[in-house]
TrEMBL record:
Name of the protein in question: Iron ABC transporter permease
Keyword Cell membrane applies: yes
CDD domains (UniProt xref): TM_ABC_iron-siderophores_like (cd06550)
InterPro entries xref list: ABC_BtuC-like (IPR037294), ABC_transptr_permease_BtuC (IPR000522)
Family affiliation: Belongs to the binding-protein-dependent transport system permease family. FecCD subfamily.
A UniProt-annotated Pfam family: FecCD
Alphabetical list of PANTHER family matching this protein: FE(3+) DICITRATE TRANSPORT SYSTEM PERMEASE PROTEIN FECC-RELATED, FERRIC ENTEROBACTIN TRANSPORT SYSTEM PERMEASE PROTEIN
Keywords carried by this UniProt record: Cell membrane, Membrane, Transmembrane, Transmembrane helix, Transport
Record membrane topology: Multi-pass membrane protein
Lineage: Bacteria, Bacillati, Actinomycetota, Actinomycetes, Kitasatosporales
Compartment list: Cell membrane
Bilayer-crossing regions: 29-49, 79-99, 111-132, 138-157, 169-189, 220-241, 253-278, 298-317, 329-346
Length: 353
């Protein structure tokens, strides 16, 4: 009798779990709904505010297809820009969350790990030396460059004792990103015919967006979104550690490769159309963990929503603070993300997730 009672003692602390679980789910659902409402409000703000303010009546008319007045015409031009900002922000936020889950590295980010600069270098090289001019070609080239950069950084980060530690991956990514940035400059400087356009693109922004450009990149982004969201359960298993994940039947190498593929597709497609925008994939996943915890089934959708909100907000701020000129979103996100990066390094001690 004593043995039987002792064997059942560990179950006692878990008894209240059925009552706690619905409350936790409600909090997560409320966070998702709040994120949707915030994103909707920011999208309206993106249409209404910029180098000139537009009344909400003209915004609603423009959403209905009207462009008779000057305000309605201006709002109509801002619609594709807003849509592109939402898609690129969602892609970068989701890619950052997946990268952090794949590498178990709290510093993982498409910019910090050199993935964005790898995509940039591939596009610049293809344009300068191979005459690349097709928008679809830009996307495929950017994804190939992003994939090669990710593999290179991870390989370098695994060298030496201890394997791919978070600090080694961050240092390898930072060094690779700096090297790629120098190579981009070396490729562009002698080419005056492409230098001006690439300097603007290299900063990162969503200005000049059109539904044609968005339509070209949308299938790639959709594929990346699907792959990443379907990897949520696998990322939960990887968070337990490779040995334990394999013990519960997870094919670790396949799960890591598939999730990384989704992140690379998102990064490459986003960089091809908007340039290398940094720090969105770093800031957003950490914020999401504070709100919904570490379960990737909730973390990944929220990361996409908050990433879209952050980039949309950054675009609005960039248009408002420097009227009548604009500050590109890549600069605004860097101003927000750089202090956040320093805070993580100092407070989190660069521990693995």
């Amino acid at each position: 009798m004593t043995a039987v009672a002792t064997r059942h003692l560990p179950d006692a602390p878990d008894a209240p779990a059925p009552r706690r679980r619905p409350a936790r789910v409600r909090v997560r659902v409320l966070c998702l709904l709040a994120a949707i409402l915030v994103l909707a409000a920011l999208m309206l703000a993106s249409l209404a505010f910029g180098t000139r303010d537009i009344p909400l009546s003209d915004v609603w008319s423009a959403l209905g297809g009207a462009d008779a007045s000057l305000g309605q015409a201006a709002a109509s031009k801002r619609i594709p820009r807003t849509v592109l900002a939402v898609l690129i922000g969602a892609a970068l936020g989701l890619a950052g969350a997946v990268m952090q889950g794949v590498t178990r590295n709290p510093l993982a980010d498409p910019g910090i790990l050199g993935v964005n600069m790898g995509a940039s270098l591939a596009v610049v090289t293809a344009v300068a030396y191979f005459g690349l001019s097709s928008p679809i070609g830009y996307i495929w080239t950017a994804m190939a460059g992003a994939a090669l950069a990710a593999v290179f950084v991870y390989t370098v980060g695994t060298l030496g004792r201890g394997g791919a530690t978070p600090l080694k991956l961050a240092l390898a990514g930072a060094a690779t990103s700096a090297a790629f940035a120098s190579l981009v400059t070396a490729v562009v400087l002698p080419r005056n015919d492409i230098a001006g356009g690439f300097r603007l693109w290299q900063i990162g922004g969503v200005g000049g967006a059109s539904f044609e450009r968005t339509g070209q990149v949308a299938p790639f982004l959709a594929a990346g979104f699907v792959i990443c969201l379907l990897s949520a359960r696998s990322l939960n298993s990887l968070a337990l550690g490779d040995e334990l994940a394999a013990g519960i039947g997870e094919r670790v190498a396949v799960a890591r490769a598939v999730a990384a593929l989704g992140a690379v597709v998102l990064c490459g497609a986003a960089t091809a159309v908007a340039g290398p925008i940094g720090f969105v994939g770093l800031v957003v996943p950490h914020t999401c963990r504070l709100l919904v915890g570490v379960d990737h089934r909730w973390l990944l959708p929220l990361a996409a929503l908050l990433g879209a909100s952050l980039l949309t907000a950054a675009d609005v701020v960039g248009r408002v603070v420097a009227r009548p000129a604009e500050v590109d979103v890549g600069i605004v996100t860097a101003l927000v993300g750089a202090p956040f990066f320093i805070w993580i390094v100092r407070r989190q001690k660069v521990r693995a997730l």
